[in-house]
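Pilot study result, target chain (346 residues):
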Amino acid sequence: MAASITYRLRLLFCLNKRRPEFTSWARLFCSSSPPSQFDRVGFIGLGNMGSRMAVNLIKAGYSVVVHDVNQDAMKKFSEQGILTKNSPLEVAEASDAVITMLPSSAHVMDVYTGPKGMLSSGNLLRSRLFIDSSTIDPQTSRNLSASISNSNLTGSGGQQISMLDAPVSGGVLSAETGSLTFMVGGSEEAYVSAKPLFLSMGKNIIYCGGPGNGATAKICNNLAMAVSMLGVSEAFALGQSLGIEATTLTNIFNSSSARSWSSDTYNPVPGVMDGVPASRDYDGGFATKLMAKDLNLAAVSAKQVGATSPMTFLAEEIFTQVCNEGHGTKDFSCVFRHYFSGKDQI
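Predicted structure:
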C-alpha cells in the first residue's frame, strides 16, 4: 500500500513538473528509485559528505528524516520540507533504516549508545537496519555490531536489528554526484537488503565480509592513498631540485611503471592539472587532518595485531606534522608544498 501511494505521488509530481510550484519536488520524485524494503530512511550527520548523501536519497524517492547537532545544517533540510528530529533516538523511532556519517568513533558511540542514542529506547524500535558510513576503527565497528546483535532490541515486525559498517571513498564530489564507492561489512543478508540504498548514493558497492571489514577496507585504502601521495610528491620535488619539470615527470609517470591515482588523477603539483585541489591552493578535497586521523586508525590497528607497518607510522608522522604547522584544513596533497617544499609548475 505504501509503495503504491509513493508511486502515485511520484507520478503526480512528475506530471506537474512544469508548474513552478511543483518544480523542486518534481526534481526529487522523478528520479528513478530502486526497489527497497525501507520506505523511510533516517540520516544522522549532515556535514560535507552526509548532506549530499542525504540529498541523493531524497532524489531517489525515499522519505528521509534527518538529524545533526548543527542546527543550521538541519534548517537547510527543514526549509525544503524534509522532516528533522532533535535526537538520534527520535530518528530511529521514525525510520525503517538509519544511516550515520560522523567524524569519529566517539561521535558514533554517542549517537548509538549515548543518553539520547538510537539504542537507548529499551526493546522496540521502528528501525531494523543501522548503516554506519563513518570512517572509524574496525574494533569499534565490531564491538558496536556485537552489542546490537546481543541486545534485546527488535525492529518493526519483531525482526532482529542488523548493522552494517559501510564507509565510503570518493570525496565530496562523488557524494554530490552519487558515485561513491561503499565498502560494506556485516551480514550478507543485511548487505543485500541495503543495496538499493547504497545504489542511490554510489556506483561501486563492494561486500567485504563480516562486521568491521568495511572499516578495515577503508583504513587500508586510505593508508595506500597516503603513501602513494607521499611517494609521488617526493619524486616530483626531487625532480624539480634536479632540474626536470613536473609536467615532464607526470607524462613519464603516467605512461610507465610509476603511474598512480596520485599522478594521473589527483596530481599534487600546482599548475599541472586542472580541477584538482592543487589548482586552487589545496582548498576543498580531503582535509589533511582527516588523513592524519585515518592514518592514526591504521597505526592503532597495526599495533593491535602486531603488523609490520613502517610506512603507516611514517605517513602518520608526516601528515600530523603538516597539520601542526597550520595546514590541517588544506587537501592532503598539500604535503607536496608544505613538507617536501615543492614548487608550482610555471
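One observation from the pilot: Strands lie at 40-44, 63-67, 83-84, 97-100, 129-132, 162-165, 168-169, 180-185, 202-209. A full batch analysis is planned for the follow-on phase.
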